[in-house]
Amino acid sequence: MFICIMYEYEKRKDEDKMSEVLNVQAIFGEDVFTVGKMRERLPKKVFQEVMNVMEKGGVMSLSTADVVAKAMKDWAVEKGATHYTHWFQPLTGITAEKHDSFITNPDSEGKMLMEFSGKELIKGEPDASSFPSGGLRATFEARGYTVWDCTSPAFLKSDATGVVLCIPTAFCSYTGEALDKKTPLLRSMEAISQQALRIVKLFGNTEATKVIASVGSEQEYFLVDRKKYLQRKDLIYAGRTLFGAPAPKGQEMDDHYFGTIRERVGAYMKDINIELWKLGVSAKTQHNEVAPAQHELAPIYATANIAADHNQLIMETMKKVATRHGLACLLHEKPFAGISGSGKHDNWSITTDNGVNLLEPGKTPNENIQFLLVLSCIMKAVDIHADLLRQSASDVGNDHRLGAHEAPSTIISIFLGEQLNDVVMQLVETNEAKTCLKGGKLMTGVSTLPDVTKDATDRNRTSPFAFTGNKFEFRMVGSADSIASPNTTINAIVAEAFCEAADLLEKADDFDMAVHDLIKKNMTEHQRIVFNGNAYADEWVVEAQRRGLPNIKSMVEAVETLTTEKSIQLFGKFKIYTESELHSRAEVLYETYAKTINIEALTMIDIASKSLIPAVSKYTKVLADTVISVKGAGADASVQSEMLAETSALLKEAKEALKVLVKAQADGVAMEEGKAQAFFYKDTIKVAMDALRDPIDKLEMIVDKDMWPMPSYGDLLFEV
Ligand code: ADP
Ligand code: MG
């Protein structure tokens, strides 16, 4: 009997262990209607038609869409789905969904069916008139359509609402204007594909049928304890702390960066990976980041469109899983003053469908003429449209990071590294690039370590747009922002430079000579955009000004770059944004800015009036009582008196600042929406917010901790 029990016990232990072993291959893409699943479930002809549309574009017949919809629905229902949704990305920067169940009206017997038609798959009309449209859609004529993007696979989302089939869609107005972030991105991908194809054809690559923009985005985030998070109204409403004295320790010891991952955070990361792998997101890298409580996750790069969708899923999953672990995930660009904020490095490259990465320099870039042409075009694009690139990475939170000595400067420049810079200099100065620097061996001085070769170029961590081997890393993007707009802009500006190059070279009598001259011309004219030094240094600001590079300091100042003649020309030429779409986006950005700062101001007013000022006031009473009783006991109460005086003075300063903020907020909110209002929020309300924060943060350092109504920076950052 005993042996039997022991046997059962051991067996169960083994089984438990087995169930603990994670079979990543088995779960990867489990919740995605992948090409593989389509191949299995669709008749061959239908499958071919779908693949054709996915790869080459064009219209899918309704009968084919019907078959796809049924297969998709059957698969989803087998996995427990009850609803479907057109999943889209309005101009709020996050995703939106409206669920519909698959059920049909019951028949006369009371029996209903689970159905999903091709029509429902292809097009939806979610109304959704409350999303920002910047005037493109008046609510009284509010038709808005969601349109299936078959290039991004449908997937299942499981949460408390059950299992929902999510169909990635574009979101457009009745007149076909884009109301979302996906549509322009898709348009820009077509533009760069067409123009890059012209370039590769010139170099004899006639097999390529498209060029794909690929993106890998590195997502930074903070994790804090959920119970403490819930005691911070600023984190709840604004996503960042609006008050808070610094903790005694920050990030000065560099002991968090790449440090051992704490158990609680590790369990969270494990769960995130599982959730993401099921969704077909190839979560690859995880580590602790520079600031305490800050971390990073990077997936393997994917087609820009899918990368943008996946980044949305990453952000959403991070938040969802955090709750499950009693944590809160902060995606804001600057949740805490005084320590590093979070960004989202956007790694970008372009590859032909027959596998040639146009940004691969090879071993001898000086001899790789196609690469040099591409590089020279990118230099030109970034120089001419530095303003647009800067704009594409601006959001409200990112204003706290950019130019603040912890993130790229607000000035756009390109880092090329030693090797490429040397090639560019040779071309510019001597008309010919005869040599190129080699990487060589890494000398560690330790005989037991293996010999390793090193890259020809070191990295630069301060550049906003850095060449990193076979891709550019756009390091400006904010952690909470969608990566759709930055990539739309990169694709557009590079497409334009390619187009201009191809226009010239296609007509050239002597191609070799013409291409040489063009590379030299581009590199010479746009060399000013290259900066290989420390972009955090103050000297760079002066130098950049001397070079005539734009230095756009804030999001609101960047908005008008969208509607310049240059921008309208560029985006119009490639049909990425119409003029009215650009104007509408500018309007939405001004509104978003004012609304966001308005929420922050109201949150500060709320916390200061209802929580902090009353708490300090109570503390002054405690001090006053103490002074009286100490004096009454005949002892020296001078310290208590001094504390009381100091506290009262700061309290007065806080109350005055609060009054100023209350008035400014009332003035701001009464203004007409638009540019002037946005600037008022930046120049007046933000200043008033800082003036209120200052005395309150000083008070936090004086008032009895037991009486301070919110967890401190130390509690939030070091006690996860
Ligand atoms: P690091 O932090 O050192 O810059 P990471 O490994 O954290 O690097 O992230 C690099 C990102 O760049 C990953 O998402 C990776 O998949 C992506 N990446 C790598 N090669 C390319 C490429 N050719 N095109 C676009 N993205 C790429
Ligand atoms: Mg990284």
Task: Give the tags.
nine-stranded mixed sheet; alpha+beta; 720 residues; 5 domains; 23 helices
Architecture overview:
By secondary structure, the protein is α+β, with helices and mostly antiparallel strands. It has five domains: 1-25; 31-180, Ubiquitin-like (UB roll) (Roll), CATH 3.10.20.70; 182-216 and 350-415 and 462-576, no CATH class; 219-342, 2-Layer Sandwich (Creatine Kinase, Chain A, domain 2), CATH 3.30.590; 592-718, Four Helix Bundle (Hemerythrin (Met), subunit A), CATH 1.20.120. 49% of the residues lie in helices and 12% in strands. It has helices at residues 2-20, 24-27, 35-41, 44-56, 62-78, 118-122, 182-202, 226-230, 233-238, 263-278, 304-324, 369-384, 386-392, 417-430, 484-505, 511-525, 538-547, 555-559, 565-573, 579-632, 638-670, 675-700, 713-718; strands spanning 81-87, 99-101, 123-124, 144-148, 155-159, 162-173, 211-225, 283-288, 294-299, 302-303, 327-330, 344-352, 414-415, 441-442, 452-453, 465-467, 472-474. The strands form three sheets. Strands 7, 8, 9, 10, 11, 12, 13, 16 and 17 form a nine-stranded mixed beta sheet that branches. Strand 8 (283-288) and strand 9 form a beta hairpin. The two termini are 47 Å apart. The mean pLDDT is 93. It binds adenosine-5'-diphosphate and magnesium ion. Residues 218, 296, 298 line the site of magnesium ion.
